[in-house]
Amino acid sequence: MRELIRKIVKDYINEGFVRSNAPAEERYKHVADEIIKFMEHLNISSIPDYTTLANWKPDDDSNFRPNMKYLLQKYLVKGEYFQNVVPLIKSLRPKFTTSLRSGRHRVDDFVVVFSNGEKIVYNTFKMNGIYLVPQPKNFEFQYVMDGKLRTKKPDFYWAEKKAIIEVAGLEDRTFNKDYMKKMVAARNQIEKEGKTIIVLDYYNYRKNLHGFYKYVCETFGFPYDPMNFWTANMVKDLPVEDLMREVEELIKKGAAKTYGERWRQNKIITQLLTKDSDNLDKAEGYKSASEFKRETGIGLRISDVEFRKKLQKAWCESSGSNVATTIKFKELFPGEKLSKTTVENAKERFPEEFKVDRRTDICKKN
């Protein structure tokens, strides 16, 4: 009887953690559908990360009580949520956004790193033909600190040089009080074992990723070209459309932006968005918000469709030259200012709307 009770209790306790043996695509779809229901019920548009979902608890007086931790553990194994379920949710609900604060960056097929610093290190080595091993299980090492035996898993292992690379992003004054003590103790132990450890100071560069990329190149003797920063900072599955919408909304706020919104706008423009989002091997980014506006037209007057219709009308009712279009525009719309440069920019940015060899057809529609 005692054995039977043990078996019943064991089966009851483990019931919620029996993994599904359904095909992968069915599992991903089921989890994606449940998370979409979860998000729609809570009226949120940013896809939660794995940890947030696993730790979610409903309000005491709420009748909405899905067990998200059970869902994730039953249907997924490590890494499948970020690499398979999140992209599926995005395809099913394109308006949902992906949180950039999740702390995870997919830099390669089946390779996820956990900070901007690690992302730049991995990509910089990859750009130079070297593939680092992230968080190598076979190179965990032990060290003694404060009388306790501790274990550390390295950020990267550089096989050719038999070197461990650590991207140090915290200092004693941050929430992790013992971080630097741990790093010193770990470093001493590794060196005693005759291994090499290279500790990169990411903490002092965490707000200057361009500078960190240069620092990584100089540390490892890689050729440095500031224009390669965007390739070093590239991730797979970047939610470009979401970022473009967000930055457009921020630009529209103009001088009414808060300091935090201005910082966010500049971060997206100068660190994340590139001129060709499909070119992962040689990305080229924007040096400033002004350059971004000039290149895309977003935030400029010419991005307004109604304004371009007025400009097109002036173009049609004049000889079509920049000067003539400017003069005619001021005649037609006396309350609005216009410069010849704006006309030039509109024609350059939207050439199909001001194509000379289609002028007759375009003007008939106007």
Description:
- There is one protein chain.
- With 366 residues, the protein is of the alpha/beta class.
- It has four domains: 2-96, no CATH class; 107-232, 3-Layer(aba) Sandwich (Endonuclease, Chain A), CATH 3.40.960; 240-296, no CATH class; 301-365.
- 48% of the residues lie in helices and 10% in strands.
- It contains 16 helices and ten strands.
- The chain has helices at residues 2-14, 24-42, 50-54, 68-75, 80-92, 116-127, 179-192, 209-220, 229-232, 240-252, 259-272, 289-296, 305-316, 322-332, 340-349, 359-365; strands at 46-47, 97-98, 105-108, 111-113, 133-134, 141-145, 148-152, 156-158, 163-168, 196-201.
- It has a four-stranded mixed β-sheet, with helices on both faces. Strands 1-2 form a two-stranded parallel ribbon. A two-stranded antiparallel ribbon has the order 3-4.
- Strand 6 (141-145) and strand 7 (148-152) form a beta hairpin.
- Helix 6 crosses helix 8 (209-220).
- The longest helix has 19 residues, at 24-42.
- The radius of gyration is 27 Å and the shape is globular.
- Mean pLDDT is 79; it is low at 4-16 and 171-177.
